[in-house]
Amino acid sequence: MNRAASGVAALAAGAVLGAVGTALPLYGVVRPGGRTEVLVTAWHGLGSGSARLALPAVVGVGVLVVAVALSVLRPGVLGRFLAAVGAALSVGVAAVVATVVAGVLAADPSAYLGSGAVLLAVASVIALVGAALVQDWTRS
Question: 3: closest CA among 130, 140, 139, 138?
Fold first, then answer.
């Protein structure tokens, strides 16, 4: 498998992991007695603006999917550009999620890190690696 094919595979994996990460809990809060009282995903549990974290993540996943399709069907500048944009969106979402979760964990000792936050972070790293691999680094 060459570098570009590995990059496309990494972009696809980052897109899938990013989509799954939005559905899993970002964090939770366990109250005395061991009962989970609050479970927050990117889609719900944040009050009136509950989809504020999910929408940019889904846009990033969509851009990554288009970048994968273009990289497979018509390799060129647009596919490479969209790979970089999708990876940047993924990294931005992961950074915002990390900031929100870190604030919650610092404020509430009964809070715990959810698998969704970890998966979004992993997805952003994989997408970033994929975006770097699909780039044409040769000088003309």
Answer: 130
Q: Is the pTM of this model over 0.70?
A: yes
DSSP assignment letter at 25: -
Q: How many independent structural domains does the chain possess?
A: 1
- Do residues 42 and 21 touch, judged by C-beta distance below 8 A? yes
Q: What is the mean pLDDT of the chain?
A: 88
pLDDT in tens, 21-54: 999 998 888 877 777 677 788 887 655 445 577 8
Residue keyed to tokens 């610092």: 106
Which pair of structure tokens corresponds to residue 102?
Answer: 């870190």
User: Residue 33: its pLDDT value, please?
Assistant: 77
The reply to whether 96 falls in a domain is yes
Could you give the 3-state DSSP secondary structure of residue 13?
A: helix
H-type helices in 24-136, by residue range? 54-73, 77-107, 115-134
139 within a domain of the structure (yes/no): no
| 95 occurs within a structural domain | yes
